[in-house]
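Below is a filled-in request sheet from our internal design queue. Each sheet records the structural input a requester submitted and the sequence that came back. We keep these sheets so that new team members can see what a complete request looks like end to end.

REQUESTER: design group, bay 2
PRIORITY: normal
MODE: inverse folding
CHAIN LENGTH: 648
BACKBONE (tokenized):
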């Protein structure tokens, strides 16, 4: 029950009590007033009748006296009228009216009627005889008097009720408006927003409550900002090159290790850029020229590699840069190398230098060692110095070459999405106790004409040719079918491309599906890769849209983006999965400890669940628990389980 209804109930009870008290007072007042009036009226009637009867007695006619008394009594509201001769104590005549009722509606309500007291009037005739006239009026009704008073009081109470109701509504509105604003602010805080309430005119206590709530919001916001600044500073000191603000060697090794440990079907490419004779240029041309060349190399590399979307450029050492390309085909890697070579040739001509920039590249698969991959790319750099275009591609992956031939165009990608068979499994994410399930991630793979095609590689090509919504739609349909067949471990997380959410038809389809299968959507956690989601301008609205469908949203590989903390506050996601590279070899890299600790603290302050992925040893699981992680995922925790295997 709302405050206004409570106040109105209290007011109604008060008004009812007041009416009862007033009714009792009216009855007592009416009886008193009517009694006074009845006495006066009876005395007046007695005087009038005495004057008439006294004249009859003078003529000494009993018949005439009786007739006179009866005639006079019948004309007025007289109940009892008697004439007694005191001299000989003889009752001369008596008149008594037996029936005396008030209005029909009030008949029988005795307390609304009043019988006047009998009045005795003595007189003597001319002969000196004494007589007594006794008179009593009929039952006198209190209704007319009470009715007038009640009508007057009703009008007064009605006006009072209107005025008080208006005041109560205004008073309750001033209270409820403030409380509603505080409730909205509390909900906003829960959703990681930090609004400030405008001053609201109300009672002082409520105004003070609003001010205190605003102060609390500012303190929470300040605390979150302080944590964010600390985390950004820690991240920059750990993973940023001071001169170029690119990722440093530490971050490069962590990312490459992450890529190699990610899954058994992962494919990627590594491109190295070496500024040959850079030290000589700095000595001969000066620091400014060398730095200008460095900035131009970085700018050209970023513009060229940006076409692949999911990339990051690292400064591995003073004169070498590296980039890890995820989910790319061999042909795409070769195209990027050619484009980089053309850009660098222009720079060389501009700076009037030859053989200054070398490009070496290689492809790799999951489970390879870092040393093997780095040896191949180093060999490619050495071969590049002997090539006329100063680049070399070192490929030892025949499987990737076969996949490249299948995914060369948009039509080919769509054909694979429609015709390929799908295989699914789920990998459990457990709570920190390593016993209870938190959720299970859905992992998928495609097979087309007996050729395995990694799902992430197919997704990357679908994004490249702007048809990723068909890829995601097919996976969602198959997973929904597994849910209906009770073959799905719940809750389940499904990887989704943010670019699919930019397609209006896909959005409409997903919204209709959420209406038809609300239980399914309430059991789903949609996972986005941080690097992909950060490239979408309206990422926050995408997250909100999925949450409005009843689902939760998670960010995968969290911590590797440039604007990690800013996005954490803006996206308002439910779960973050800390990139596994942060937890590996934590004992040999204690600087990561404070960084991870701050991330967990910041996420928890925003009400976000934290999962550490790619746990591979008992030691890493122990570290994750000590850091306060809510959930754990990795081969040490649980291997993927094939609980369903569906085909088109």
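RETURNED SEQUENCE:
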């Amino acid at each position: 029950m709302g405050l206004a209804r409570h106040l109105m109930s209290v007011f109604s009870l008060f008004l009812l009590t007041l009416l009862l008290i007033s009714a009792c007072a009216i009855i007592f007042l009416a009886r008193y007033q009517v009694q006074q009036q009845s006495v006066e009226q009876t005395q007046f009637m007695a005087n009038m009748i005495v004057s008439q009867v006294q004249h009859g007695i003078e003529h000494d006619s009993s018949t005439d006296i009786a007739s006179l008394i009866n005639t006079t009594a019948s004309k007025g509201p007289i109940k009892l009228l008697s004439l007694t001769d005191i001299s000989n104590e003889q009752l001369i005549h008596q008149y008594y009216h037996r029936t005396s009722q008030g209005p029909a509606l009030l008949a029988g309500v005795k307390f609304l009627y009043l019988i006047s007291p009998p009045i005795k009037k003595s007189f003597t005739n001319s002969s000196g005889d004494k007589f007594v006239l006794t008179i009593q009026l009929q039952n006198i009704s209190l209704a007319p008097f009470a009715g007038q008073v009640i009508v007057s009081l009703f009008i007064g109470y009605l006006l009072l009720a209107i005025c008080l109701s208006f005041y109560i509504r205004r008073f309750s509105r001033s209270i409820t408006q403030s409380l509603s604003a505080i409730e909205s602010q509390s909900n906003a805080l829960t959703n990681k927003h930090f609004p400030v309430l405008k001053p609201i005119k109300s009672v002082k206590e409520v105004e003070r409550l609003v001010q205190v709530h605003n102060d609390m919001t500012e303190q929470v916001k300040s605390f979150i900002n302080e944590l964010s600044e600390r985390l950004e500073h820690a991240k920059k000191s750990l993973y940023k090159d001071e001169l170029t603000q690119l990722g440093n060697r530490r971050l490069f090794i962590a990312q490459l290790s992450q890529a190699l440990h990610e899954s058994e079907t992962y494919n990627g490419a590594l491109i190295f850029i070496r500024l040959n004779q850079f030290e000589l240029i700095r000595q001969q041309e000066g620091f400014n020229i060398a730095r200008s060349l460095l900035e131009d190399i970085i700018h050209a590399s970023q513009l060229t590699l940006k076409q692949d979307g999911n990339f990051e450029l690292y400064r591995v050492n003073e004169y070498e840069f590296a980039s890890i390309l995820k989910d790319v085909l061999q042909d795409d890697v070769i195209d990027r190398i050619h484009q980089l070579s053309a850009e660098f040739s222009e720079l060389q001509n501009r700076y009037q230098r030859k053989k200054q920039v070398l490009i070496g590249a290689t492809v790799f698969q999951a489970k390879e060692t870092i040393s093997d991959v780095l040896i191949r790319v180093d060999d490619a750099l050495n071969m590049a110095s002997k090539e006329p275009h100063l680049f070399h591609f070192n490929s030892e992956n025949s499987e990737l070459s076969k996949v490249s031939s299948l995914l060369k165009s948009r039509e080919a990608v769509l054909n694979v999405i429609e015709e390929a068979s799908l295989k699914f499994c789920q990998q459990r994410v457990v709570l920190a106790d390593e016993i209870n399930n938190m959720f299970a991630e859905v992992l998928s793979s495609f097979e087309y004409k007996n050729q395995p095609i990694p799902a992430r590689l197919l997704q990357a090509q679908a994004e490249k040719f702007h048809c990723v919504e068909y890829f995601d739609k097919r996976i969602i349909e198959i997973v929904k079918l597994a849910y209906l067949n009770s073959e799905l471990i719940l809750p389940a997380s499904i990887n989704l491309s943010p670019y699919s959410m930019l397609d209006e038809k896909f959005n409409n389809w997903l919204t209709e599906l959420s209406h038809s299968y609300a239980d399914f959507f309430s059991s789903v956690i949609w996972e986005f890769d941080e690097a992909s989601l950060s490239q979408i301008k309206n990422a926050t609205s995408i997250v909100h849209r999925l949450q409005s469908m009843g689902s939760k949203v998670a960010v995968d590989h969290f911590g590797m983006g440039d604007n990690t903390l800013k996005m954490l506050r803006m996206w308002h996601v439910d779960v973050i999965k800390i990139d596994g590279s942060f937890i590996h070899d934590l004992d040999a890299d204690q600087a990561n400890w404070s960084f991870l600790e701050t991330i967990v603290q910041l996420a928890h302050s925003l009400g976000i669940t934290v999962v550490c992925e790619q746990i591979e040893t008992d030691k890493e699981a122990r570290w994750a628990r000590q850091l306060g992680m809510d959930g754990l995922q990795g081969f040490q925790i649980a291997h993927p389980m094939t609980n369903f295997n569906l085909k088109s």
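SHEET NOTES:
- Confidence is low (pLDDT under 50) at residues 100-108, 644-648.
- The radius of gyration is 49 Å.
FILED BY: M.R.
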